Amino acid sequence: MEAARTSSELNGLGMKNQLLVLNGVFRAADPSDPLAQAVEARGAAAIARMPAQLTGLARIDIPLLGRNIVGIEALRLLLGRPGAVGEEETGPQPPKPDVPDLAALVEELGRADHGLVMVMGKGGVGKTTVAAAIAIALARQGRPVHLTTTDPAQHIRETLGPEVPGLRVSYIDPKQEVERYRSRMLEGARPSMSADKLALLEEELKSPCYEEVAVFQAFSRIVIGARKEFVVIDTAPTGHTLLLLDTAGSYHRQLTQQSTPGTRIRTPLMLLQDPGYTKILIVTLAETPPVLEAAALQEDLRRAQIEPFAWVINGSLAAAQPQDPLLRACAVAEIAQIGKVKDDLAKRVALIPFQSEEPVGIERLMAVAARSR
Length: 373
What we know:
It is a single chain. By secondary structure, the chain is α/β, with parallel strands linked by helices. Helices cover 50% and strands 14% of the residues. The strands form two sheets. It has a seven-stranded parallel sheet with strand order 5-4-6-3-7-8-9, sandwiched between helices.
């Protein structure tokens, strides 16, 4: 679906020379492994449901490899492999990682009666799935929950499906927020400004920089709302989120410089820095590039004096324990990265097994946050 959106946007810009690359295409080698059959069926169903704007494109399929694609030799293998299962993919089943499941993390979050839960990470690691699963699990405990997103792609509505009692869902729409901000500024200035000055202000408010201000104000209202309920934020991919945090830092510095000495203030940045109020969850996959990017995000947060609460490793084959030789090799390749996160990077870790069915809809999202043992 996201590839189709990208293709449409490129077509709108006149960039029509497009090639569709399907990466990680899996074909089960063990017909007796139900997980392998489910993984193949899940991929085949996604291809069968491919939006019309993609079906006419030239296409290359790249098969799934049983190793992390890091280094020159791995890249050569990626480009030259004919698709057969190689010797590197026939190793023994790795032990199931000794890492708590998402249910344990939700239980810890649910000990409070309100608070802000921000789900962060690079694109494609499953932030929306994790945020929605946590929000549903908290709502099922009888907690009032507000699930919202700053991601322009708006995957929440596609992932969640029907309404859940006690769960409110919203989306920060930059265009709507800019219109609200402009209207508010003009209405406030109208009683004291001449028509010429109002026209100048209206022209100035068309500047793109005001979108950043408007989105930050909407984000701030949501952050403050966690004083009375659980607010779960599915953030945009890392770069957008860091820009939002940078704006929070600028606002904080401006407010503290202008405040009267002795005045008690609580800026959005201060709320994000308060571990009793805000819980930052970093989502990653058990693969080298996502773990490296998640580690870089953690360092950026720490420079802003925001300490992540936990890491969530999503879609783990090692936790799912497949029998198919290729999937088993992928599981083996995960072990080092799971160990790195658990031992070197995170204070808390939750591990989500790879789901046989795509985690879309309430029941399947509930399964993501269910006890795995």
